[in-house]
Every structure is written in C-alpha cells, then in structure tokens.
Amino acid sequence: MENGGAHAAGHSAAAVEIYPLSRYYFGAKDAFPDKDENPLDRIQRLKSNFASHGLRTCVLGVLLVELFRHPHVLVLQVKNCFFKLPGGRLRPGEQDVDGLKRKLSRMLSLEDCAINDNWQIGECVGMWWRSEFETLPFPYPPPNSRRPKECTKVFLVRLPVSRQFVVPRHLKLLAVPLYQIHDNSEVYGPIISGIPHLLSKFSFNIIDDD
Amino acid sequence: MENGGAHAAGHSAAAVEIYPLSRYYFGAKDAFPDKDENPLDRIQRLKSNFASHGLRTCVLGVLLVELFRHPHVLVLQVKNCFFKLPGGRLRPGEQDVDGLKRKLSRMLSLEDCAINDNWQIGECVGMWWRSEFETLPFPYPPPNSRRPKECTKVFLVRLPVSRQFVVPRHLKLLAVPLYQIHDNSEVYGPIISGIPHLLSKFSFNIIDDD
C-alpha cells in the first residue's frame, strides 16, 4: 500500500508485511491419493467421523504475496476445477496451530513430515460453520441451536522474505489478487471469496525488490 | 452460542459478551436536517472537502444485541429506505475513537454533546476504501495506486448490560440478525452485509435474562 494509505489507516490497523511473488520458488512432488471415490462417499465418511468424534474442525491458511503492488492470496486449484486454501481437518485432540503446520507442510513443503517447517501461524481471522455436511458454510454458528457439524478456522500465515513451495502434482498453486476473489463466491466459494473482508482491518506493507 | 460451540472455537477466538435486546430502552429526539438537497449536492460537497482536506475518513460502530439466541446488529434506517451503521465522518485531525464517540452520541444518546457517554469502542474489525466518491467501497485499497478518496473504518462497540438509546426522528433503529444481513448486499449495502465476515473470528457469550 502507498504510504499515504498506511498513514490514513492510523494506529488502529495492524500491519502485515508482504513480499513480491518473485521472491518465492515453486516445485512439484508426487500426488497423494483421493480419500473418496465421489462426493457421496465423502459425505458418508464425514457423517461416520461425526458419529465417532463429534464436531469436525478444519484449519486453513491465508498466505499472501505481492504482485503489481496488490496483495495476492495463494490458493490451490484441484483438477482444473475448484479452489481451496491450504489446510485441512484437525486430528482428534490436535491443536489448531500444530494441525495447520502439519497440513501446510503436506501441501506446500518438500518433506511431508516437516511439521516445524518454520511456518509462522498468525491470528485466526475468521470462522465458518456448517450445520449439515451438505450445506454451505456461514460466518456464524447455526442460529437455530442445531449442533454444528463443522467449524473451519482461517488463519493468517506470515511468510518469510523467501522460501520454496513444493506442491503435489494433482494440485496447482496460484496467486490470485484480492480484487479478483472479492465477492466472487461463484468461482472461489464462500470461504476464499470472503478473505478480503477478513483481511480488511490490516494494512499491508509491501516490501519491494528495489 | 452453545457451550459446545464456544469450546469448539478454542483458544484462538476472542469472546464478545452480548445482552438481550430486552435489556435496552429506546426513545426519540428531534430530527437533524439533511446536509444535502440531493445526491448530486452530496458528491459536490465530498469533492470540495477532498480538495481542502484530502482523504475523507469515516468511522462506524457495530453494536450487538441478542435475540432468539443469535447476534443482531443495530442498524439505522433512513427514510424507510436505505440502511446505515451509526457513525460518520471524522473532523480534520480528530482521532478515530473520539470521532466515533461523538457520532454515536449524536445518533443514539439523549444529549448530542455527551461525547463521553460511556461508549466503549473496541477493535477496528475492517476497513473499506473508495477510489471515487461515486463508486462502491471495497475491502482493500484501490489496486491501481490511484489515490483513495474515502476510508471507512468499522469498529466493534461493546455495549453495557443495559442502556437507553435516543434516536432522531428521521431515523429508525432496528436490530437485524446476522443471518439476514449476511450476503445481502442488495438490501443492506456492502458494508453492513459484510459484518458477519468481520465478526466471524469472535465467539459470542450470550448473557441470558434468566
């Protein structure tokens, strides 16, 4: 952001440093297999997990880079079709931050098991709730006091000045500008398209190459 | 929120206490006059202010009450038509919190000038930017490095257990549920309809009457 803008934001805005996309390196690793043959299998699996473990908790990471002086979000594209944020389901008893580090390493690092791959997990910027596994998530708990089935927490991940991302071959990692995902739930789904809202309280310090 | 939900949200969620609508009292006071005859006058006034003072900064308050065990936002309806949050433009040099207290008192208190009417202004939860006065605001600064014309900051206001609201007669104060404003930009405009996103990182402790 321009200095003028950062100043205008005043003391109330927390600053996030973001670095140019050109500072990062991208590689590929073996794909990992699908857990489900089709969407119905998936729903069945989620229901059976809910019966055993209760509320399903997912953790997702928002990773930001700069391009054309505008923040871009790193999103994963699955099968040239839908988009998701890196992250996934917590294991029973697992802490948010530990689970997110594990998932980020699995999806973005050379070594799957490098859980402490220096991921710097920042604050939780939003939570989404599903009252049924088949329905859309909402940014508030179900109002009719039905037991929610799934809670998805979105965390801001602070990237270092430079690093390598190694992505499984069945996924593509894309940098998408905030202005493209904003209000574009049709293409990116409600969670990704809501990221500009969740980040709007921050001011961005763009650290230039030059 | 149910205890189960609050627990599920874990340590990452900040808690906000909200009280039933029935704890609050509502009265009316004299209307205050419109600044502008019509929308064109308004644009002209904003442009001339921008020429004199630069970036226009607005501060808005999100005030929450509970009804049917779901958070409701207090919104003002103007002329049975459009909706806005209590707040308004900062005077040149005025601090965010001081300006918001002044505006809240003007719109919601018996005494216009009771600036320190015990308003407890919480964190800034989001910022909206306009690159032109005629265009919609976006939850990020204009990407093409044009100078923004307006920045609107949205603050969470913590209400006490009980209080009186005194509203000018040309405005109506309504409590609207999060599920009604979510994704409903057509009726409530982009800023109000985005509030559920901005609040989604909080868990709500509903303090019951009984």
From TrEMBL, chains A, B:
Keywords, in A-Z order: mRNA processing, Nucleus, RNA-binding
Any one GO MF term held by the record is: mRNA binding
Which biological processes are named by the entry's GO terms? mRNA 3'-end processing
Tell me the InterPro entries matching this sequence: Cleav_polyA_spec_factor_su5
Q: Which Pfam families match?
A: NUDIX_2
UniProt key word RNA-binding: yes
Q: Which GO terms describe its cellular component?
A: mRNA cleavage factor complex
What does the UniProt entry say about where the protein is found? Answer: Nucleus
Question: Which Gene3D superfamilies does the record cross-reference, listed alphabetically?
Answer: Nucleoside Triphosphate Pyrophosphohydrolase
Kindly indicate whether the keyword Nucleus belongs to this entry: yes
The protein's role, per its UniProt record: Component of the cleavage factor Im (CFIm) complex that plays a key role in pre-mRNA 3'-processing. Involved in association with CPSF6 or CPSF7 in pre-MRNA 3'-end poly(A) site cleavage and poly(A) addition. NUDT21/CPSF5 binds to cleavage and polyadenylation RNA substrates. The homodimer mediates simultaneous sequence-specific recognition of two 5'-UGUA-3' elements within the pre-mRNA. Binds to, but does not hydrolyze mono- and di-adenosine nucleotides. May have a role in mRNA export.
Question: Cross-referenced PANTHER family, in alphabetical order?
Answer: PRE-MRNA CLEAVAGE FACTOR IM, 25KD SUBUNIT
Spell out the family assignment given in the record's similarity comment. Belongs to the Nudix hydrolase family. CPSF5 subfamily.
Quaternary assembly: Homodimer. Component of the cleavage factor Im (CFIm) complex.
Q: What is this protein called?
A: Pre-mRNA cleavage factor Im 25 kDa subunit
Source organism (scientific name)? Ananas comosus (Pineapple)
Q: Which gene encodes it?
A: LOC109717449
